[in-house]
Design a protein that fits this description.
The chain is mostly helical. It has a two-stranded antiparallel sheet with strand order 1-2. Helix 2 runs antiparallel to helix 3, helix 5 packs antiparallel against helix 10 and helix 7 packs across helix 8. The termini are far apart.
C-alpha cells in the first residue's frame, strides 16, 4: 500500500486541527467537564475515527479497512487501561480537576510525537529484518502474562520515575499549584510547579505505553500509515474518555485479563507470521515454517471484538452480582 506524501501531510494536519479544536472549544478555559460534555466530545471523536475508516476502506479496499478498524479498536482498548495510570498520577499529584484537561492534552501531544517516532523506527526495522516480528510477538506474550496478574488498586500511589526524580533533584520545585502555570516565583526566584512535574510524569508514562501498543498494531497491519492513523484517532478522544468513564474504570474488573488475552493473541499472530516469513538460519535452516496457518485480519477483528465484549459483560455481571450479595 503506497501512501503519497500529501496524504501523510493532510492526515497530520487534520490531527493537529482536531487537537486545536479540542483546545479552543473546551480545554482552554479551565473547568470541570460534565458527563454530558465528555459524552458529546467522546462521541464526536469516535465518529470522526469511523468516518476516516470508511474513507480509507473506500480508497484502499476492505482488507486495509479491516486492518484499520481492528487496529483502532485494539488501540482504543489499550488506552482505556492507560487511564487507570492517569487517574493514579492525577490523584498522587493532587491536580485540581479543572486543570486536568490541560495536563492530558500535553500528554496526548507528547504521546503522538513519541509514537510517531516509534512507528517510523518499527517500520524501518521490519523492512530490513523480518525476524523483528519474533521479538514483537514474544514481547507481547510476555506483556500479556504480566498484565494478567497485574491489579489496579484504588489506593495505589504513583512512584515518580527517574526523570521526575531527576528534575526534582536538580531544579527548584514547589509543592503548591499556581493555576495552570508550570513555573512560579518564590522569593524572586523561578520554581517549577507540580503542574510541570505531572506533565512530565504523564509524558514519560506515554513512552511505556507505546512499547506495547506499537508492536500490537504491527501485529494487525504492516502499513505505517494505518499504524499512525489508528494511534492518532485512539489518542484524540482520550481526554474526553478520561472524564466520561473515570468513575467506571473500577467496574471493569476483568479489563486487565481481557487485554492480556488480546495482547497474547496478537503476540501469537505475530510469531506465526514471522514463522511463515522465517529467515533465521537456526530455525528450519532459514526456510519458512508453515506448521500453523496464518490468521486472516478479518478473523482477528472478530476475535478482538469478542474478547472485549466478553470482558465488558463479565465485568458488569460480576459487579452486579457482588452488589446484590452485599445488599
Amino acid at each position: 500500500m503506497h501512501v503519497s506524501l500529501w496524504i501523510w501531510l493532510a492526515t497530520i494536519a487534520g490531527v493537529v486541527a482536531l487537537l486545536a479544536l479540542s483546545f479552543f472549544t473546551h480545554i482552554r478555559t479551565p473547568h470541570d467537564p460534565s458527563l454530558k460534555e465528555a459524552a458529546i466530545w467522546s462521541t464526536f471523536f469516535v465518529m470522526v475515527a469511523l468516518v476516516f475508516g470508511a474513507g480509507l476502506t473506500a480508497a484502499w479496499g476492505w482488507d486495509r479497512g479491516i486492518e484499520y478498524f481492528a487496529g483502532y479498536i485494539t488501540e482504543k482498548s489499550l488506552s482505556v487501561d492507560n487511564l487507570f495510570v492517569f487517574v493514579i498520577i492525577m490523584s498522587s499529584f493532587a491536580v485540581p480537576r479543572i486543570y486536568q484537561q490541560r495536563v492530558l492534552l500535553v500528554g496526548v501531544v507528547l504521546a503522538l510525537i513519541l509514537r510517531t517516532i516509534f512507528i517510523l523506527i518499527g517500520a524501518a526495522a521490519i523492512a530490513h529484518f523480518s525476524w523483528v516480528y519474533y521479538i514483537f510477538g514474544l514481547f507481547l506474550i510476555a506483556t500479556a502474562l504480566k498484565l494478567a496478574f497485574e491489579k489496579h488498586d484504588e489506593d495505589e500511589t504513583y512512584k515518580p520515575n527517574f526523570m521526575v526524580r531527576l528534575v526534582q533533584k536538580i531544579l527548584p520545585t514547589t509543592h503548591e499549584f499556581d493555576g495552570a502555570s508550570i513555573t512560579t516565583l518564590v522569593n524572586g526566584k523561578r520554581h517549577l510547579t507540580p503542574m510541570m512535574l505531572v506533565m512530565l510524569a504523564i509524558g514519560m508514562t506515554d513512552v511505556l505505553f507505546a512499547l506495547d501498543s506499537i508492536p500490537a498494531i504491527y501485529g494487525l497491519t504492516e502499513v505505517p500509515y494505518i499504524v499512525f492513523a489508528t494511534n492518532a484517532f485512539a489518542l484524540l478522544g482520550l481526554i474526553e474518555l478520561y472524564f466520561l468513564i473515570g468513575g467506571w474504570l473500577k467496574k471493569l474488573v476483568y479489563l486487565n485479563l481481557g487485554l492480556a488475552v488480546l495482547l497474547g493473541f496478537i503476540g501469537i499472530k505475530l510469531v506465526i507470521g514471522a514463522m511463515h516469513d522465517n529467515q533465521l538460519s537456526f530455525l528450519n535452516s532459514g526456510k519458512p515454517i508453515h506448521i500453523i496457518p496464518a490468521i486472516p485480519t478479518w478473523l482477528s477483528l472478530v476475535i478482538i471484538v469478542s474478547i472485549l465484549a466478553i470482558t465488558t459483560i463479565a465485568s458488569l455481571v460480576k459487579i452486579r452480582r457482588d452488589s446484590t450479595t452485599t445488599a
